[in-house]
Specification:
Length: 220
């Protein structure tokens, strides 16, 4: 897989190839962080859930706060509901990361906006702590939706997909890594239904897929 930035607002994804998509095992994951700049911020929570046979297994989850070397700004605390006090007794990333790798073992990873935030964030953290980067294949719901709907030119926000697929999120805590992982899983399953309705069994990005980057909204 190759992700190539073509402007401040767009990137293209190519080289994605997953066969027999409906038969795969998936790990949907999400990170919360001290901020939205993946180059300078740090992970504060890891959440993940397994999908097997088209079902989100809410009894197979991973959820851990992560102690950060820098404090969470007050605006981010209010936005995510994750406060510095939550991290006081939390493990360091290097002490919890192998557990996450084991949880995601042999799975195809699913994320939302992970190509532009979660994966670069994790890559930087791995370099800081000399940890191995994830090598699992990874699918991003933004790229998958853009593949199916190239006619939609706007940014594919989570809330857009919730409305598009009429997905219930009222039972979930938003901006929580585990809650968002379950929500992304629900979105992903609806996207899979679209692939199946079009008789597409293999995901092949033969031509580069254009994706709009999310816009950074200052937190105050």
């Amino acid at each position: 897989m190759e992700i190539k930035t073509i402007s401040d607002t767009e990137y293209v994804v190519s080289g994605v190839s997953i066969t027999n998509i409906s038969e795969q095992r998936f790990c949907v994951f999400d990170f919360e962080a001290t901020g939205i700049n993946h180059e300078t911020e740090h992970i504060t929570q890891i959440g993940a859930v397994i999908i097997e046979n088209g079902v989100i297994l809410e009894n197979k989850t991973f959820n851990s706060y992560i102690k950060s070397p820098k404090p969470i700004p007050e605006a981010v605390e209010r936005y995510t509901g994750i406060y510095n006090s939550f991290l006081e007794d939390a493990p360091n990333l290097k002490d919890k990361y192998n557990d996450f790798l084991e949880f995601a073992k042999d799975c195809i990873l699913i994320t939302h906006a992970g190509y532009e935030f979660d994966l670069p964030l994790l890559s930087n953290e791995c370099r800081r702590y000399n940890l191995p980067m994830l090598t699992n294949p990874c699918l991003d719901t933004k790229a998958l939706f853009s593949y199916l709907h190239p006619e939609i030119k706007g940014i594919i926000w989570t809330d857009y997909l919730i409305k598009y697929y009429n997905i219930n999120d009222k039972d979930l805590r938003r901006h929580d890594a585990l809650g968002d992982s379950i929500l992304i899983g629900r979105i992903f399953l609806r996207i899979l239904e679209e692939f199946q309705a079009r008789a597409i069994n293999d995901i092949e990005f033969i031509d580069p897929v254009l994706v709009k980057r999310f816009k950074v909204i200052p937190m105050v």
